Amino acid sequence: MSNDFGFWELFFSVFWFMLLVAWIWVIIAIIHDIFSDRSLNGGAKALWTIFVILVPWLGVLVYIFARGDSMNDRAHDRALDAQTRAHDPASLPAYALSSARPNVADELRGLAELHDSGVLTSDEYERAKTKVLAP
Q1: Cα distance between residue 49 and residue 57, in whole Å
Q2: Helices 122-133, 104-117: crossing angle, 10 deg rounding
Q3: Integer Cα distance of 41 and 24 in angstroms
Q4: Please, which contacts does 127-132 make with residues 24 or more away whose CB atoms are closer than 8 Å?
Q5: Which of 24, 76, 85, 105 could bridge to 91 as Cys pair (CB 3.0-4.6 Å)?
Q6: Could you give the residue ranges of the DSSP H alpha helices within 37-91?
């Protein structure tokens, strides 16, 4: 007998390992969907989880047939919410806003306050205002 582990044995080992990784990914995605679904109560979540874990092949197939469309809708809604939050400055945390450059109106207001309080001379105020208004 030969103890060589040839190319095809390696190929099929990698193939089966990747199928195992994909299967684990599907199980995790379905369990995540079960627990992130607000329309299911606690008992239904427990039953679906037990069904998917104890009878995995049948549980996953039944879940995908029974709730696949709503699973896709929830994933789409989560992606849309994430995209909306990414483009909404009000949803950013305070540390992200503090490093952002203030807008032109805020800078001009601050310069006017410094000029009115006497910190800036009229000449310094005009130069700073020109600098802020320059593109």
Answers
A1: 13
A2: 180
A3: 25
A4: 132/104, 132/107, 132/108
A5: 85
A6: 42-54, 56-87
- If we measure between CA atoms, which residue out of 37, 96, 91 comes closest to residue 66? 37
Task: Tell me the Ramachandran region of residue 70: left when phi exceeds 0, alpha when psi lies from -120 to 50, beta otherwise.
Answer: alpha
Going by the DSSP 8-state scheme, the letter that residue 91 receives in this structure is G
**What single-letter amino acid sits at 32?**
H
Round to whole Å and give the CA distance between 110 and 121.
Answer: 14
Using the structure block, give the residue that is written with the tokens 């099929």: 12
**Is residue 4 within 8 Å of residue 22, measured between CB atoms?**
no
Mind listing the pLDDT tens digit for each residue in 72-103? 888 888 888 888 877 766 666 666 555 556 67
45-56 residue pLDDT tens: 999 999 999 999
Instruction: Decide if 128 contacts 111 (C-beta within 8 A).
Output: yes
Residue bearing tokens 């197939």: 61
